[in-house]
Amino acid sequence: NRKGSSGMGDKWSEAFIKALKDGDTERVKQIPKADLHNHFVLGGSRAFIRERKGLVIPALEGILESMQEMDRWNQEYIGKYFESGEGRRFLIEAAFVQAREDGVTVLEIGEDVWGLGQYFGHDVNGLTEAFLSARDQYAPDLELRLVIGLSRHCPVKWLLEQLEPFWGRPEFYSIDLYGDEMAQPIENFVPVYRKAEENHLVRKAHIGERGTAEDIRTGVELLHLDEVQHGIAAVNSKEVMQYLAERRIRLNITPTSNRKLGRVATYEEHPIKTLYREGIEVTINSDDVLMFDSDVSKEYQRLYDHGTLLAEELDEIRVCGLQPVG
Questions:
Q1: CA–CA distance, 46 with 55 (Å, rounded to integer)
Q2: Whether 85 contacts 79, CB under 8 Å
Q3: Where are the alpha helices (DSSP H) in the chain?
Q4: pTM here?
Q5: 3-state SS string over 229-263?
Q6: pLDDT tens digits, 147-189
Q7: Rounded to 10 degrees, what is the CA torsion of 207, 213, 216, 218?
């Protein structure tokens, strides 16, 4: 059974539950929800990009066989068109258009530290302004939580140097480590996360999509994580699930991404069902909208249609995502 879940709901709950049961995804889109695991470069509105740039970006078909295949798709449809500061700003705008169209009222997105030099001339003011001005123009009522992104492939000493302009900036809400979980040991990043803790950032990391349940516990303990991006491997250990539930470590899960990357065979078998019912705080998110055709409303509807979770359970997850962590 869920722990501490009784009475969770909001004024939208009845409408959300009814929309799911009716299969009315357009109505689902009108109801507030969060997207806390969104890589904005692939998180934009397909229609907006087509209208403004004349580019038709198809959703990925089939299951990806490797990360290299994912990189090739990204380069063919995104990378070669938007590798400039102007292109980066356009993708930020597209992400806010997508969020508005999907009824997302809390959005957590941000730029990788290497992007500060690559696209914004090492000007952190210019970077933050790009996000804030796009939010104000396209989704002014949205709560933006800016993320500092880190690639697990980068040397830690280099990351610490690149992070200097970000420390102490009140615009930033969280820090997130992503990339190949096997690129280097998680303990290497302890100095980065201690600095993030000193700066009162919410601490997140991508763990447990390809790694193990024990990798998740190790990451939480070493990096003092508040949230885990993915974390679905926790389902393989009763002890780790209990650990996460007791410490209220939130898992920001991306169901269609897990399917398309071959980590989960079917929606019916998705670990979110067990994780949620074991009392772990979970949220439902998009990851890469353009690649996976995974806007948040569709994610909720797919999980309901496949019988993964009840509409009432999905509503509780929706409401949970709108709350601050902890």
A1: 9
A2: no
A3: 13-22, 25-29, 46-53, 67-77, 85-101, 113-120, 124-138, 156-163, 190-198, 213-223, 238-247, 255-260, 272-277, 289-292, 296-305, 311-321
A4: 0.95
A5: EECHHHHHCHHHHHHHHHHCCEEEECHHHHHHCCC
A6: 999 999 999 999 999 999 999 999 999 999 998 888 899 999 9
A7: -140
